[in-house]
Known about the structure:
Layout: E1 3-4, E2 16-20, E3 30-41, E4 44-55, H1 62-87, E5 89-92, E6 95-98, E7 115-119, E8 125-130, H2 155-172, H3 175-197
Amino acid sequence: MAKANNTNNSAIKFNVTFGTKGTDAMPANAAILLRNCRKRIDGELVEVTEFMAVTGVRRTKGDSIMLPLLALMVADAKVRNGFATEFGSVTVNGKKIDTKLVAKSTFTRWLSGESVYKTDSDGALSSELTVDDGMLLKHTALNVRKTSPLLTAEGDELTELLKLNAKAIAKQANLRSLIFKKAKSIFNAADGQADTDTQDAPETEA
């Protein structure tokens, strides 16, 4: 059975649900991350595909799919950083001791794939945003770093940064393709110019 975070308020649009694809129902209008793993079912080790669903997707546009996921990743990083600040060191007899205590993320492991899916109003997978070949989701801004301004921003600043970062991640997914397209355009322009404006230098005998 799918596990959801505790809430009984049906008015809340944002929710995080975990489950197994093909066994548990996926929620409607959610961003979906999948990961393959092995689980023991009835004493037998089998390959299954687990999902993490984050509801709150309003449109099929890439940034709309990314926004609830990014909100989760920012919250994850903020809370873990707060934990590290609170328990990261202790002072004993005037000496500061580093405790090495950190809170490990349980969400970043979901960024090891290359696609974010979206469910329709019936909970069926309907569209996806896939990063370019050679990239993974963890290579995008969905993997919130300690230096990200998202971690210190609050209020309107955080809202605007979230929206901008969601758009950036959607574009970042196809950045490699855009680079290839731009390189081809630059090369074709230069190559065509070389054909019309210059000639090969005549060979000279030694």
